[in-house]
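Example 510, ligand magnesium ion.
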Amino acid sequence: MQANVTAPHDPPADPASRAALYMPFDNSYARDLEGMYARSSPAGSPAPRLLRLNRNLAEELGLDADEMSSAAGLAMLAGNAVPALAQPLAQAYAGHQFGGFSPQLGDGRALLLGELVDRHGRRRDIALKGSGRTPFSRRGDGRAALGPVLREYLMGEAMHALGIPTTRALAAVATGATVQRAQILPGAILTRVAASHLRVGTFEYIAARGDEVLLRRLADYAITRHDVALAGTPAPYLGLLQAVVERQASLVARWMGVGFIHGVMNTDNMTISGETIDYGPCAFMEHFDPNAVFSSIDTSGRYAYGNQPAIAQWNLARLADALLPLIDADAESAAQRAGAAVEAFAERFDFHWTSVLRLKLGLDGSSGDDRALADDYLKLMSQYRIDFTLAFARLADAAQGNDTPLRALFGGTGAALELWLKRWRERTQAVGTSQVELAAALRSANPIYIPRNHHVEAALAAAVERDNLAPFERLLRVLEHPFDEHPADISLAEPAPAELTENYRTFCGT
Ligand code: AMP
Ligand code: MG
């Protein structure tokens, strides 16, 4: 790759639409990290159509949602016009993919337009995904198909509503062009918003080149963006590693608390910010199974549900490797200190996982055996293949004396459930909250709705095959408020037929 070259691209189809929207972009990445990107321009869309604008997020970013859905806004979201202050670039990064190292991946089909400071003073990246070839595209077409774009929109917004740190979707646009995959599909562009797009793989890219000056600049940039309190401390780079360990330990625990399986936890898909990124082959678990894996390419189960903490730690060890020269000039001491930081992941994950389980069960941590109680519930679920989401959601009714929905869910498991319920009742009563308070706490901790695979697939099929966005809109509306009851949409809370889950496979969605 050649850094900072402008790739030749077709001009936008409609030059008249170049009347670009004003957006107050800042470009700290372009400014501070020369050598870590290639300037590039979006290829444009022949017949763009706005499929969905995230109006709340637009407002949060200080943008005018009406203006964003105007012709000028669409031109930007479709890559037909670049706002005056944007400096589109493809970021360079490397990555360990399924354990093997690729020294150069980079944004092959994404462009960072720049950063906006939102209404809360937070700096957010605005990027187009599917906007055409970049110097990192290798043999790829730089494009995205409509289905995966809507999937990322839906999954990201669902995760956000579940309270889990994630990149967000600002808009989905149909390009009017087709893309060639296993079949010919409609093309689309997602506008992605992120706390930053810095990845473990971004550090690996520089470390692999042995450029310590640039590595330090990158680490300083990450600290400015995500851990500003570390600046000027005696050991800022070790501190950065520890901060990422902490964020990822918390993130993976939260994923697991909603049954989320990322599916492709390569180091280029793991952020420094602690946000979930890259909703390719991800899926939510239905019946509880620690070995659940849905991705068609994950044949060994490397990224299975229960493997996620171990993989996160493995990825963090790759970050530690990259940071070694900054942590201590003495190699042995650097390795020792970085190693301890990575080792601490296990304890930090355990802490966060226990906290997640306590919240989900309405326990307060005053009893040492909370974890045993939680683990026994998970064991029951696993043994009898009980739906993970509903097993928690229905505890709220049980807290108020109505065990019927929970009993129905556990079907013929009779005594095993009753024994566990008795222990749970004793524990929650010892906590001392009223039944009503306990039920309310459980309802705010346990979603009724997750993006169930069969509903997601049905919504995407309607959009792709019949140009019908209504099922997507309906599902999104419910997933934006996953803890509330939506009586008209209660069917969206129901598990898929078992044989469907058995055969369900996700694809990398490129
Ligand atoms: P992902 O599987 O989306 O995390 O992508 C892995 C790598 O492949 C990244 O460097 C992407 O930019 C690149 N890539 C994925 N799809 C395409 C595509 N259609 N065209 C060019 N590059 C791609
Ligand atoms: Mg990726």
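Summary: Residues 105-109, 137, 140-143, 269, 278, 280, 508, 510 surround adenosine monophosphate (ligand 1) (CB under 6 Å).
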